[in-house]
What we know:
Layout lengths: L16 H14 L12 H5 L4 H5 L10 E2 L38 E5 L2 E5 L4 E4 L12 E4 L5 E6 L12 E11 L8 E11 L9 E10 H4 L20 E4 L15 H7 L3 H11 L2 E2 L2
Antiparallel strand pairs: 1-7, 2-3, 3-11, 4-5, 5-6, 6-10, 7-8, 8-9
Amino acid sequence: MARHTASASTRYRRPAMGLVLAGMLALAACSAGEPSNSTAPTADEAAASGSLGARSNPPSGASSAPVSAATSLPASTTPPAATSPAPSRPSSSAPAAGGEIPMTTWKTAKMAGFSFKHPAQWSVRIDPEYGDQGEYSNYQIVDGTGTPIADFTPNSAADTDGDAGVYTYTDLQRIPVPQLDYRPTMVLFEHMDINQPAGQKEYERQLARLSVRDVAQVGKRGHHPSLPYFHAARDVLPWFSTTDPFFNQGMDPRTITVAQATAFMATERYRAMKQLMLSLRYDG
């Protein structure tokens, strides 16, 4: 069996369709106790109903320090011990340098009831490794050089089977996505420091990942691997995340430091992908 990890890049080999459906039912059953879309919005979620630029900017005086996965909100500039519980609600952190990128020339991609906008020089294609599997197809976002830089799967049943890593998460930016309202959802930029047990040290990594996430699931990460899922509907669990090549911009995607990830937020590449994910809609 292929080794499964929660890395920012690894795509999980899909099981046969019967196993996919079984996995979806199990995931849905496990999440039955999570918050529903009837939960009253937080102040941050209410603020996110404005323009894209407004979602990217924090209130005056907001801290520019990264939000550790072990902290409570609002973020403290001095994170407590890593054993503290993770937060369960998103908050907008300090924005990357540079304003909103104009989207007037962007194109719209549609698949399986979902749609999102992307830069005209980027494209979207079905992953040639797996081919067309309907709603379970993996769609690759490809940059102008032909490099796949993000994956979107309308309905996925991947797992973390075999990943024994101990994860330390540092959340660098959290932005609510109000139009995905089945359950509270956010765009999350996180850094992951992964320590492995003896005999698996070659799998130790320092990774960054920008993804669309279920708020409640992020709050349950602890030090365990966590997959980039969110809930679009009762039995619809999409995966939307960047891949390692997205960060291949003068740094090794396998050994990204928190400082490097923070600096990367100022790039046009980061801001374009963030706006792309924030434009995601589900009309299924």
